[in-house]
Design brief:
mainly alpha, two-stranded antiparallel sheet, 29 helices, globular
């Protein structure tokens, strides 16, 4: 088969013809139950979850009250992407989301890549939410004096890594009681769990159980899922509005000064965490075939969901940072924390219940989205035909839903929360980038049938290149030190925690004796605490670290070890130059272009390890594509 066969495209006409045929004979047809209100509710169900109950705390601690600008920036980026999604959804109102859109815009190989990325996004996203739900649920049980063993409420990786870090810190003189709560829990889970040979059985059982319950609900039918989702949205919105109403009476405006205590860098530090709070609105587009009027309702549902959730996030952020000082909010449950601090424990209980409901609603939407991606790829012959099987009674993708339950439920037992959060973010952002790029690719093609919704056109021919030149000017004038440090790949000093956890016992003793020798009065034998006391003064900390009697490899990060972490940002910079040339030559539309740039920037902010894991996932997908999908593709069969 010729190489160009990799980029064979589906036409919108053929897609719509197949959908009409499915609906006329009832074969593989999904039930149509959703309206704008239902889609908006699904969007809120997906978005209002971990962001408002968890990550908003860390982001507020980093950025202060000015974190509201980060929510606005992220909402704007998601809004740009939503315009692109809405335009495609209006053109191609079928299940499949970005996968189907890419099949039309770029061709089969790119469609496969984005479909494979979406499988990871929804699976890993639900693993993430299931783990968070488990944390909230077990916390709620503790308030009712029901204490589960640590080894059945924590994942294997967290327990294993936490045990190693806790052991290293205690070896350095830190007492168990002075370890963070997370490390204490990990150490306890690892040392009290059943051991089979050399294998420690640590598994997050509640996370798997909630996946089983949600999968059963999604399997049962869209109408039941819709009703359950709407009910959960009503409950959690009611409780969030109660939190805002009660919290407003305890706002002290002096806490809003300084408004941006850590400057722009502090605000942007939480960009990945805040973006994760918005993940989910794109799942609405997977339900296109189940909408009564998809060309009208899908764009409206997406936009209303983003607008409502952004307003809620901003108001909640202002209330939280007004009730207590921003630097106290770096906790896993910020809403419950602020009310406990103000001795309003009855509100903390209400918030705990709300969090459990909110997480369950997010699980519902994500667990509903993934089977529809599998189904769409199966319809095209890229996955086995079983995945496109629709239940004759429930009108849901039955086989794909069951497989999704296993794909999410089993890893939720063992995977680490931080790893899956970032993997979900990079998969989602990659989908957003390709959808925005797809709108740009199709914008000047006359033979493409257009839907009722079209992104407003603003010519980026001069705006984007000029904006890029202004940014370069700013980087080399007002931010020249950081810019030159980035370009020159200057050696960086490691943090106290990184240094101490890399030491063996002999090295720990040497470092301790060295630090004790610097000052006559030392009140602790905790090596990390002794080293951390110098961090407030960068110059002094660098001087202290330089004198430590250990290898420079432990003290510093330099050369390729440092440069590899900058690779994502270099990819972003090089892509910006290419986009500036493309926009000048082709008169690109500004809104989808800004969506592409915003999402690519957030990808660049993620660790290089996430890029590597994501690349490995894509390579595995390509092996499946060339081994099965390329040969069995419906487009290939039609050609033959």
């Amino acid at each position: 088969m010729a190489l160009k066969g990799l980029f064979r495209k589906k036409t919108i006409h053929d897609i719509m013809k197949q959908v009409e045929q499915n609906e006329s004979d009832g074969h593989n047809a999904l039930g149509k139950h959703l309206t704008t209100r239902d889609l908006t509710a699904f969007g809120i169900a997906a978005i209002v979850g971990a962001g408002i109950f968890s990550t908003i705390g860390k982001a507020s601690a980093d950025g202060g009250p000015a974190v509201i600008f980060l929510f606005l920036f992220t909402a704007l980026a998601c809004g740009f992407a939503a315009f692109a999604y809405a335009e495609f959804a209006s053109m191609v109102p079928v299940s499949g989301s970005a996968y189907t859109y890419s099949y039309v815009a770029f061709g089969e190989i790119i469609a496969w890549i984005i479909g494979w990325a979406l499988i990871m996004e929804y699976a890993v996203g639900n693993i993430t939410v299931a783990i968070s739900w488990s944390d909230y649920f077990t916390g709620l049980l503790r308030t009712a004096n029901i204490e589960l063993p640590q080894w059945i409420q924590m994942d294997y990786l967290s327990a294993s890594n936490g045990f190693k870090d806790a052991t290293a810190l205690m070896q350095g003189g830190k007492s168990f009681d002075n370890l963070s709560a997370n490390l204490q829990d990990a150490y306890t889970a690892w040392t009290t769990c059943p051991v089979i040979g050399s294998f420690h059985f640590v598994a997050d059982i509640p996370a798997m159980l909630i996946i089983i319950v949600i999968t059963a609900l999604v399997y049962r039918g869209m109408k039941e899922s819709r009703n359950a989702g709407n009910l959960m949205v009503i409950i959690k919105l009611g409780i969030i509005l109660l939190v805002i109403a009660v919290g407003a009476f305890y706002v002290d405006t002096t806490h809003w000064s300084p408004f941006a205590p850590n400057g722009v860098s502090g605000v942007l530090k939480g960009v990945s965490a805040v973006f994760f709070a918005y993940i989910g609105f794109d799942a609405i587009s997977t339900t296109a075939e189940e909408c009564k009027n998809p060309q009208r309702d899908l764009p409206r549902g997406m936009m209303w969901a983003i607008i409502i959730c952004t307003i809620l996030y901003i108001v909640i952020a202002l209330v939280l940072t007004g009730m207590v000082s921003y630097n106290e909010l770096n906790v896993g449950d910020p809403l419950a924390f602020v009310f406990e601090k103000l001795d309003l424990k009855w509100m903390s209980g209400i918030i705990a219940v709300s969090a459990v409901i909110a997480m369950a609603s997010v699980l519902l939407v994500f667990q509903m989205g993934q089977p529809r991606i599998w189904m769409s790829m199966s319809r095209d012959g890229l996955l086995p035909q079983k995945f496109s099987r629709v239940h004759p009674k429930f009108k849901t993708p039955s086989y794909a839903t069951i497989v999704t339950g296993f794909v999410v439920g089993i890893p939720a037992l063992f995977m680490n929360l931080t790893m899956v959060t970032d993997l979900c973010s990079i998969g989602t952002l990659f989908a957003f980038v390709l959808v925005c790029a797809g709108v740009l690719v199709l914008q000047n093609k006359k033979d493409i049938p257009r839907g009722k919704f079209k992104t407003p056109y603003i010519n980026a021919k001069y705006i984007f290149p000029i904006a890029l030149l202004l940014e370069v000017f700013f980087a080399f004038t007002y931010n020249s030190k950081a810019t030159m440090k980035f370009i020159a790949n200057e050696t960086q000093v490691n943090s106290p925690s990184t240094i101490v956890t890399a030491l063996n016992q002999s090295e720990t003793d040497k470092v301790y004796r060295y630090l004790v020798g610097l000052e006559t009065k030392q009140s602790t034998n905790d090596v990390e605490a002794l080293l951390s006391q110098y961090q407030e003064d960068d110059a002094k900390y660098e001087a202290i670290v330089a004198g430590l009697p250990i290898s420079n490899d432990i003290k510093y990060e330099s050369g390729f070890d440092l440069f590899k972490h900058k690779i994502p940002m270099w990819i972003f910079v090089i892509t910006l130059i290419g986009l500036a040339i493309w926009s000048y030559k082709e008169n690109l539309s500004l809104i989808p272009l800004l969506g592409l740039v915003s999402c690519l920037y957030m990808m660049a902010e993620l660790s290089v390890w996430n890029w590597i894991y994501f690349t490995v996932w894509l390579l595995l997908g390509l092996v499946i594509y060339f081994g099965f999908s390329r040969k069995n593709s419906k487009l290939n069969q039609n050609k033959n």
